[in-house]
Design goal:
The chain is an alpha+beta fold and about 260 residues long. The chain is built from 4 helices and 8 strands. It has an 8-stranded antiparallel beta barrel. α2 packs antiparallel against α3.
């Protein structure tokens, strides 16, 4: 019975020692080794001063052995430590699906033809309105000549126009002119972000006063574009000089015009 009691006592003692050793964390073991080595270093200094070389050598070997055991224990504890799994990244919100834009419209009648409707006033100082009023419907053509890049502008900076219109007023003018001209869209940075352009052309009155054809006239203007919210594109406002000549009556002077692009 006494042997059995001693056996259990020894087992309990060993388990308590093992629990004390293996239950420590790496930091606790490190602190314990440091404390022990401080004691050993103090003894080494003590025996060095006393001239006891043999004892000092024994303590130095014990210090080296302790450091070796510490390094071995440290390596085993670090390898046995469970790998720290980083937290999963936060879920990424799915990017919103791009808005599906409507298919580009082919125009009011689905033909995709670029046109421009222009209303103009020529100040002549004649008649009840001191001038002549008119309207011109034109087809707008792309720069098929490639003149824009030749003069240092963009490929879409220049357009050509061919149109037919009518003018009335200013001393009895009655004229139906045919007009051919062009538009030069200037870079917006030239005018501080304002979309500006130059316009000009020649006209010929095909039918007018006296029921006859007239003569060649022309016009030149500078304009700018603004979005009026009509959904038809930007509206142009022009200031220039115009001449329209029928067979017997002419209208020439400063002109004001408003042009609206329309895709048919």
């Amino acid at each position: 019975m006494k042997k059995m009691f001693v056996y259990f006592l020894v087992v309990a003692f060993v388990l308590s020692i093992a629990g004390a050793v293996f239950g420590r964390t790496l930091e606790e073991e490190r602190d314990a080794v440091r404390a022990y080595l401080k004691v050993v270093d103090a003894k080494i200094i003590k025996y060095r001063k006393a001239g006891n070389k043999a004892k000092m050598v024994v303590l130095q070997k014990e210090k080296q052995a302790t450091l070796a055991r510490w390094n071995k224990l440290k390596a085993s504890m670090e390898s046995a430590a469970p790998a720290v799994t980083p937290p999963p990244p936060p879920p990424v919100a799915p990017a919103p699906a791009p808005a599906v834009s409507a298919a580009p419209s082919g125009g009011l009648f689905g033909m995709g033809i670029n046109t421009c409707l222009t209303g103009a006033y020529i100040n002549t100082g004649k008649g009840s309105i001191s001038g002549s009023v008119g309207a011109m419907a034109s087809i707008v053509l792309d720069d098929f000549v490639g003149l824009g890049p030749m003069v240092g502008l963009g490929a879409k900076s220049i357009n050509y126009t061919v149109g037919l219109g009518g003018f009335y007023g200013g001393g009895g003018l009655k004229a139906i002119p045919v007009r051919a001209g062009g538009i030069i869209n200037l870079p917006a940075e030239w005018m501080g972000g304002l979309e500006s352009y130059l316009a000009g052309g020649l006209n010929y009155v095909a039918y007018g006063n006296g029921q006859k054809a007239g003569k060649i006239g022309g016009d030149a203007a500078v304009g700018f574009k603004a979005d009026l919210g009509l959904g038809l594109g930007k509206t142009g406002f022009e200031l220039g000089y115009s001449v329209v000549r029928s067979d017997t009556v002419s209208a020439k002077g400063l002109s004001l015009a408003v042009s609206q692009p329309i895709v048919l």
